[in-house]
Design brief:
Structural class: alpha+beta
Helix content: 10-25%
Radius of gyration: 18 Å
CATH topology: Metallo-beta-lactamase, Chain A
Strand content: 25-35%
Order of helices and strands: EEHEHEEEEHEHEEEEEEEEEEHEEH
Number of helices: 6
CATH superfamily: Ribonuclease Z/Hydroxyacylglutathione hydrolase-like
Number of domains: 1
Shape: globular
């Protein structure tokens, strides 16, 4: 199996000439052209940082950073553990550490950029992968472990609920963890809701690397959906990208700021 160096998504052998995930307008093929690696090669020069973030949630991220550089989150509940999002590297140290935390009972991924080596993780821990059916065309390594769900919500266990927000991808998903933040609730957002440098805010984009915004109506719809949820903390896709408190209000004011920035001063503007 081959792993794209730019996005970290695993493909079968032989891989395509260009990674379809990167060739899409939301991503990019690396400046050095299409490059591939393998799990074995990745293990030679990388390891995973595994760090508790609060009771019941642990971050897993590869060092040095690989591909997009996201971290995964392992959420522990009395009914089972969820791996939220995924990283490409899976090695013996990671397997041992995750098993010590109770293993993985289900995997859910926010959007195709983080599909990574989800099949390898699934097979190692005998855990199904829950993906929204709207993004099924982006599964580069089809496998029976992948279970596609539809609609706007999908309940798992331990109170965890997957919620389709759309925007970044049609099936872009967040996970609501009601027990997070000391019982005040946490939202696991990947970069469907992107925690920005000023961590009082998030942003909403069609393409982050190519700086392509989302339409105002899409952002307004996402904001309305999030406003109906109960959570105080928001976990983004990278280390340190968290809105620690009052996160629901942070999403609301971020949407308001975004919509104000898109508002045209001249409705007759033509390109």
């Amino acid at each position: 199996m081959r792993i794209c160096v730019t996005c970290g998504v695993q493909h079968g052998d032989p891989p395509p000439v260009r990674c379809p995930v990167c060739d899409d307008g939301r991503q990019y093929v690396g400046w050095e052209g299409q490059r591939w690696t393998t799990m074995e090669e990745l293990r030679e020069g990388h390891t995973n940082r595994i760090e508790a973030l609060e009771p019941g949630i642990t971050g897993i991220g590869t060092i040095p950073a690989f591909a997009i550089g996201q971290r995964a989150l392992l959420v522990q509940t009395p009914q089972g553990n969820l791996l939220w999002d995924c990283v490409s590297l899976l090695d013996d140290d990671t397997v041992r550490a995750v098993r010590d935390l109770g293993g993985i009972d289900a995997i859910a991924i926010s959007h195709p950029h983080y599909y990574a080596t989800m099949v390898d993780w699934s097979r190692e821990f005998s855990a199904p992968v829950h993906l929204h059916q709207a993004d099924r065309r982006w599964v580069m390594r089809p496998d029976a472990c992948v279970e596609h769900w539809s609609g706007d919500a999908h309940e798992l266990f331990g109170g965890l609920v997957l919620l389709r927000l759309g925007g970044h991808f049609p099936g872009a998903t967040v996970a609501l963890w009601p027990s997070g933040a000391g019982g005040s609730g946490a939202l696991l957002a990947g970069d469907v809701l992107q925690v920005v440098q000023d961590r009082r805010y998030v942003s909403f984009m069609y393409s982050y690397p190519n700086l392509v915004p989302l339409p105002a109506r899409t952002v307004a719809r996402i904001a309305r959906r999030v406003d109906g949820l109960a959570f105080d903390r928001l976990y983004g896709a990278w280390w340190g990208r968290e809105v620690e408190r009052d996160a629901r209000a942070a999403v609301a004011r971020s949407a308001k700021r975004y919509l104000a920035a898109l508002a045209s001063e001249d409705d007759e503007l033509e390109l």
